[in-house]
Amino acid sequence: MLLCELGYNQKIHDEMVERIRLQDPIIADAIEALADGYCYLYPVEHSEINQGLCEDFAADVVALFPGAELLWVGCESDLDDFFHPSIIHAMTRYEGKFYDADCPEGVERWEDLPIFSSTN
């Protein structure tokens, strides 16, 4: 699933991200607001964001928080630290924690994100 397939409008999307930025939220509140925004702008449920929109979502979190990084976990990762045998997923690392749409509070280890819980 891609944003362009869901009626993506860059101006409207960017305005949503900017409204969140202007609130100067902590990261957990920003992730929750961003997930709510995705559900409002696109025909997706909260639980579907990590099933095809994780890169877009992580990129938006990175745009909101200077110093945050978009990282990939994958079965073909060049980085041993981010290898997973069956899941490819984009996430955000910020101030020592890992985040995605289902984990606004963040976790210390990327393997502890909920998306990986069924495969640990």
Give me some keywords for this one:
globular, 32% helix, 3-stranded antiparallel beta sheet, 120 residues, alpha+beta
What do these coordinates show?
The protein is α+β, with helices and mostly antiparallel strands. The protein has one domain (3-116). It is built from three helices and three strands. β2 and β3 form a beta hairpin. The protein is globular. The chain starts with 9 loop residues before the first helix and ends in a 21-residue tail after the last strand. The relative contact order is 0.15.
What's the structural blueprint in terms of helices and strands?
Elements: H1 10-22, H2 27-41, H3 54-64, E1 69-73, E2 89-94, E3 97-99
Antiparallel strand pairs: 1-2, 2-3
Helix pairs in contact: 1-2, 2-3
Question: What is this entry, summarized?
Answer:
It contains 3 helices and 3 strands, in the order αααβββ. The protein has 120 residues and is of the alpha+beta class.
Average pLDDT score? 87
* Main sheet strand line-up: 1-2-3
Radius of gyration: 14 Å
Please give the largest β-sheet: 3 strands, antiparallel
The succession of helices and strands, N to C, reads HHHEEE
Number of helices: 3
Structural class: alpha+beta
**Which residues form runs of ≥5 with pLDDT under 50?**
none
Distance between the termini: 25 Å
Structural shape: globular
Number of strands: 3
Q: Report the β-strand fraction as a percent range.
A: 5-15%
Taken together, the total number of domains comes to 1
What is the helix content? 25-40%
